[in-house]
Request: fold
Amino acid sequence: MSRFNEKDEFLQKLERAKKLVLNRNDDAAKRLLFECLKYFDDEHIISSKLTSLKYLIDVQLNLREYDKAKSLLIDFESEYLEYEKTIPSEIYHSYGRLYSNLGEVHKSIKYYRKAKQIIKNEKVQTVLTQEPFGNLLAWLVLHGYCIKLVNMMCQDYIKYIKVSHRNIFSKYSLMFLNWLCLKISCRRTDVIVLSKDLKKKAVGYGSKKITPLPIYGINLKIFYPQRKKMEGTNLVIVARLSPEKGHKYLFEALKKINEDNPNWILHVIGGGPLQEDLEELRNDLGLKGKIFFYGYLEHKEVAEYYNSSDLFILPSLEEGLGYVSGEALACGCPVIASNVGGIPDIVIDGKTGLLFEPKDVDDLKDKINYMINNKNDALKMAEAGRQHIIKNYNGEKVMEQFESILRP
Reply:
């Protein structure tokens, strides 16, 4: 099936969604919108603006603001048509999965030419990059110039792709391309890594100048203790609703806990492509009145949930660092997280929180039960975690270090 035909199908679904909104059929409209977003995920075409518009539409439908919802749907369609222009229409479905859609590479060639022009005409002293292809592109642009190039390694790109939902061809092609870009570029740039785990990865790619730094840090003016206890046992997770975040393992663990202790509620904060699937899983597990989805929230609202909850849980399959666990600790909220990536830098097992093995539902269940039943221990670990965050992850201090690294 060609991308052209899929584009037509997408636009037809969008047109039906607009009619459903006019007919006040909220649920059906939402289902179609989720299908529209799944189209993007299936093709690995990601547009944050489209995702944001979708959630704004969701909010307006919940408020029964149908005129606003329709207006946003029109914006959604316009944004999609504009975004589609960057993707060559002759690329077929199977090839469209190769590298964030080949349209991204096509755009990168334009960026290369533009960047080359800027480097030639402006007094550039430092260039900062973040992902593998961008880092390689910047290295090619700067070849022959005495300009400092700094690469931020924020996650294990290879492992993120490995745990994602893609077909085998797409997954291994992406893994190889990312590995190749990192292998070529890392040994030629300064590298900032978020965690000890990523430092090991950078060494493996041949990096010679590596600086560990939790880029951005935690904003202690937003995330601080202001405990406002809610009734019952309140659990919270803050994470994108995508495969690598491991929500389903948390839901399965809570199903087992619910058999003996039904006095709990889980607040799920964040949006993403798996929302519909996770809502169905919740219902299938008989937890409809126990797990609630809130979508994306402002940082101040997220801080309120940390402060009013008894336990924060992060069941990720991969994390560069897991900032949200640090935010929770900064608010004095006890934390359980999976033992992956950079998470152990923040959640020191038995000291600042508890770690469990990723995908191990029984281990997660036991750790949640321990924290619920031993609240004094949980709060002691949370306080130790808060001090750990203040000392090592203070956003203002981290940014000062970050700026000093960027100076030529």
In short: The chain is about 55% helix and 10% strand.
